[in-house]
């Protein structure tokens, strides 16, 4: 029952998406354990794994974007192909807004992309079908994220330096795109747009070329840039989430990597009210809600190449293995947590598919 693939007309698909996109008011999740210390119940929603996942009021939206470009979406218990008439393969999905519109990137043909492996044509799937945003942006760009209101952030990569050494672009430009009857694309200056929250605040990295490191951050809103203090002893390598409280989750690097295990010197961090908190070594955060709960995966044993990861949730300064606090079936291992909503529900995937974890509620 979990791998049925049907073709649903795009208008019906968007109707299904829109019908579940009724957002709850932001509130901190209410976690209560039962006598066995279980914080979450678990329900398998798909036997097939996914690449991206989003949660809207308890309704999971899953996406598969295989190298073949034949992307699929999982909605209301079934997988259906994403109709793609652009001629370019879908390489990733970046988000879904509260109108049910899907935003992501397709790969440009050889010779048209700014750097090998970089998606360079953003798309949106709405009730009118799938279309590229190129005509609106007027430049080749890559979508980074979308918020609930449909504001899209995109980056144009003008010049790449040291592509084989992992250096950042030296002359990239960030854009904010609003859609609807008055669709506009606003250039917000040089830098790399990393994330956007539901208040329309954009987290920007300044265009300083450093090997794989984020050296300075700004928050952009209403044409104003506000510097974000970065006071810590680690080097930031990636940003995964940015919520309405201006909290940030991402990964850091410490010292020089071991030549045999080059990825063992990383970890996850959480910035709250400007204070840098270390979550754990060898962790990768993937999502965060407005209460500041962070989810992701962490390497339990061995080295990074062993792929022995477990899904985690980080809350109030405590890292919890979701396998220890979730009521999962026997022989099931949750490897990665992909999303968490403001109700505390989590989408996690593992060795037996994708699960929806729901907090245990206080009885009475």
Main sheet makeup: 5 strands, mixed
Number of separate domains: 2
Number of strands: 29
Overall average pLDDT:
78
How do the strands line up in the largest sheet? Answer: 26-1-29-28-27
Name the structural class. mainly beta
- The number of helical segments is 3
Residue share in helix: under 10%
Distance between the termini: 35 Å
Low-pLDDT stretches:
1-14, 16-27, 111-119, 159-170
Form type? globular
- Note the beta-strand portion: over 45%
Tell me briefly what this model is.
The chain is mostly beta strands and 364 residues long. It contains 3 helices and 29 strands.
What secondary-structure arrangement, pairings included, does this model have?
Elements: H1 10-20, E1 40-46, E2 52-56, E3 59-64, E4 72-75, E5 78-81, E6 90-96, E7 102-106, E8 121-126, E9 129-132, H2 134-137, E10 142-146, E11 152-157, E12 172-178, E13 184-190, E14 192-196, E15 202-205, E16 217-221, E17 224-228, E18 235-242, E19 248-253, E20 266-272, E21 275-281, E22 283-288, E23 294-299, E24 309-315, E25 318-321, H3 322-325, E26 326-327, E27 334-340, E28 346-350, E29 353-359
Parallel strand pairs: 1-26
Antiparallel strand pairs: 1-29, 2-3, 3-4, 4-5, 6-7, 7-8, 8-9, 10-11, 11-12, 12-13, 14-15, 15-16, 16-17, 18-19, 19-20, 20-21, 22-23, 23-24, 24-25, 27-28, 28-29
